């Protein structure tokens, strides 16, 4: 064996150091994969690029473009909408900078628009654009500038009058530019390109809203005789061209072959052990918290001198993980305690920039962060990334993992599983994470609860023609809105009424319905808002509310007034709501018969009520359950469902008294595993199971979208039912607990207190269902 083959990689050496610090008797490592390095593939500068742009890019240290950069840029320059979907740190920015800057250099009136989901990413891209435009006289009048909620009023006027490349977000485009498009007429008239960065983040209700905002943008541009080309940048996702086409409402070509280099990576999957001394609800075992485990791993890596970034799913978690790392370092390497910090949204911009610079130059050796550092912000030279809890999608996992190894050297990525069915499944089925195609982005712009308010916005911007309304399939929808006095139909189109104020009523980030303001009762300070539909579960009396590192407890919630009053308090526990749910089928959209098993995609009315909440310690231990009396909430949405006959369950070895627990456990686990096939979070969906449902007369399991009208998640689950339920069964079966725990069949928001649950019965039930589904396919 050669010396090169025998020597462990740098990432493996770091992993060995972390394993050496594992307590005796523990074996948390479930899988290790060595991902090979990838070589650069360069190409020549195309002749269509303006010479000044080539000189500026070369001046910024880029001698030649990678193949995917040139391919996407050339498609855009030829007039094709295009999405470039390649890995983290693959230089996707250059793919749109080349055509945009060339157009701006060749035509002194041309304009361009850049959209990003976060301000931090937009600010990063503005700096890059300024660095390029300052190097060429032909780009001197571009004036790249931000136009967002942080832009002062007097600066906004200057930007509107002078900037030819504006950097904003979909929220400001919706409410600050399209609503007052007449004031932007010169900008829209000359609009050549629209850049949509990190477009994979536009999914669910947020993505559906953004898709309709972009259709409104194209409509306004056409009003001013412009036809801009859309250039989209995405993480690696399944079918990026189809997803981008659905997002912008026009055919979009895709570039997916990555020509950028990266060093070898060691990817380790890590499952914290079950704790013998701590029990959860109904005495179920609890795992060591992913954040605590990640803090120990990061401390060990920092002792080895490895620059490390730890991704945590919440702001509070990021702060706690950084604090835990500091405590561990105080014992083993006190000189390193000042070289670790937390980074998250909510910090002042100058504080974020200082942390980014300290990470980049090595002053800061470790940071615990939310996904605020997942998108775009350029941080080089990281040796290791720790992911504390699967981030929800495979796309996000690879975005976070891609932060490591930017110097072309080896690196380590560790995924630490949370107490969650999906995390459990992935660490025991590594191919589902490391070998599977990344999820397809789910959006549904036809959702009437999203489409109606968006069409009101469009009609206020420019009256809707009868042809446009028919193209949207929205005649019946607008007729209902007309009956509410929000819009009027006239011989030459549809016009909003004076009573309508549609732009202010739309929360494109996903809230539908009245917003509830969260207010500090002592100071009167407004801390934020929550969607009225979710307020009973997240802002009920007694709920712990976190805001920019501060902790508050809710005193009162008034849904009619749209107000939740809170007081400052930092309890040692967190809270999670418990809800009861009833579901009624209102229509069947698709139905498949598999003998004793039937599968359907349905429209349903869900009635759910928050009946209490649990108080949990950071270890996962349940302190107590507090009862609440909250009003019921009704939701019209879409669900995927399956029924089984009692005879099939009995043949599978499930006795009648175990029907409810088996169905209940299978439903909980299926909710946890749906994000494997649809780009959603567990909080986006809900479920109901019953041994005898009134609409089917059979044992039935439902999983539904938690948004009015649906968000496309149930549809995706229906389309991928076989793979989804197979993964659900495997996740339950591979969990090492005896009778069910949060890693397999327990749900943190179960209104029945996770009782009854039958883990063995769920495995038997799902096996029987899968046998019949496979037999017919």
TrEMBL record:
Gene3D superfamilies: P-loop containing nucleotide triphosphate hydrolases. The keyword Oxidoreductase does not apply. GO terms for molecular function: helicase activity. Residues 73-255 form the Helicase ATP-binding domain. Residues 297-449 form the Helicase C-terminal domain. Keywords: ATP-binding, Helicase, Hydrolase, Nucleotide-binding. PROSITE patterns: HELICASE_ATP_BIND_1 (PS51192), HELICASE_CTER (PS51194). NCBIfam families: DECH_helic (TIGR03817). This is DEAD/DEAH box helicase. It comes from Rhodococcus daqingensis. The lineage of its organism: Bacteria, Bacillati, Actinomycetota, Actinomycetes, Mycobacteriales.
